[in-house]
Write a structure and sequence with these properties.
Elements: H1 4-18, E1 25-28, E2 43-49, E3 52-57, E4 61-66, E5 72-76, E6 90-95, E7 100-104, E8 108-113, H2 118-121, H3 135-143, H4 150-155, H5 165-175, H6 188-205, E9 241-246, E10 251-256
Antiparallel strand pairs: 1-6, 2-3, 3-4, 4-8, 5-7, 6-7, 9-10
Family: Belongs to the FPG family.
EC number: 4.2.99.18
Organism: Streptomyces kunmingensis
């Protein structure tokens, strides 16, 4: 599941393969940009912005893509077999003399002026892995809607950019709160710690092939709660629970430990009401 850490890794791979080289093949397989031709232009850089990828190309052009749930960019050497999926799933091809970058199942793909990138990403909050990171701004954004559940608020990229469903569940566990706790009910210390811990989690995983939040490398022990429904909590041995959480337009599976994360829970899955001490 692409989140800020994996999108940054994708940007690094694309930058290594494409930056500083002239495109000899360009194929954008979306109706709006199907006739666009980038061949002969040099790729300047590839960066990430939250969960967005920006491939900047000479001539004030940026190819903006977003992976969402299923999208991916694959890098291939000349003559190497493309294995990212069937050909009908390819949405973009950017190739130079030494590499081909192939975008599969990209739900967002658009060509825009580099000078107008803010039209695509200007709505985003501070990027947890970017130069614009500002924990005070992120916390201020979260506090604008005190009745909103923490789990929904941290997924809203307008508040802070980079957290997805995995880090949402792990962050709430480490803070000792349920994802259903309203932002306005966070105690001051936990609220101040939330953006700092968010950045720490993504920074720790920015170069790792497999996410780790527990400090353990064993199978099934890298994450505290995400994907561990019905398995014993690594701290207290209570069974991890899972329920859907969302704002009505999109529901996502959310994992938590009812003992280590006291507070509001989904109907019929009530746990303790006292807010736990967050992990520092």
């Amino acid at each position: 599941m692409p989140e800020g850490d994996t999108v940054l890794q994708a940007a690094k791979r694309l930058h290594t393969a494409l930056a500083g080289q002239v495109l000899i093949r360009s194929d954008l397989r979306v109706p709006r940009f199907a006739t666009a031709d980038l061949t002969g232009r040099t790729v300047l850089e590839v960066i990430s912005r939250g969960k967005h990828l920006m491939t900047r190309i000479e001539g004030d052009l940026t190819l903006h893509s977003h992976l969402r749930m299923d999208g991916s960019w694959k890098i291939y050497a000349p003559g190497e077999r493309w294995r990212g999926g069937p050909a009908f799933q390819i949405r973009a091809i950017l190739a130079n003399e030494s590499h081909a970058a192939v975008g599969y199942r990209l739900p967002v793909l658009e060509l825009l002026r580099t000078s107008e990138e803010e039209k695509a990403v200007g709505h985003l909050g501070p990027d947890l892995l970017g130069p614009d990171w500002d924990p005070d701004k992120a916390l201020s954004n979260l506090r604008k809607d005190p009745d909103r559940a923490v789990g929904e608020a941290v997924l809203d990229q307008r508040n802070l950019a980079g957290i997805g469903n995995v880090f949402k569940s792990e962050l709430c566990f480490l803070l000792g709160i349920t994802p259903w706790l309203p932002v306005g009910e966070l105690d001051p210390d936990t609220a101040e710690h939330l953006p700092l811990l968010s950045k720490k989690l993504l920074e720790f995983n920015r170069d790792r092939p497999n996410r780790v939040t527990t400090g353990r490398a064993g199978p099934g022990e890298r994450l505290y709660v995400y994907g561990r429904a019905s398995r014993p909590c690594l701290r207290c041995r209570t069974r991890i629970r899972v329920a859907e959480q969302g704002d009505g337009s999109r529901e996502r599976p959310t994992y938590w430990c009812p003992t280590c994360q006291p507070g509001p829970h989904p109907t019929g899955q009530a746990g303790p009401t006292r807010q736990a001490r967050p992990t520092r």
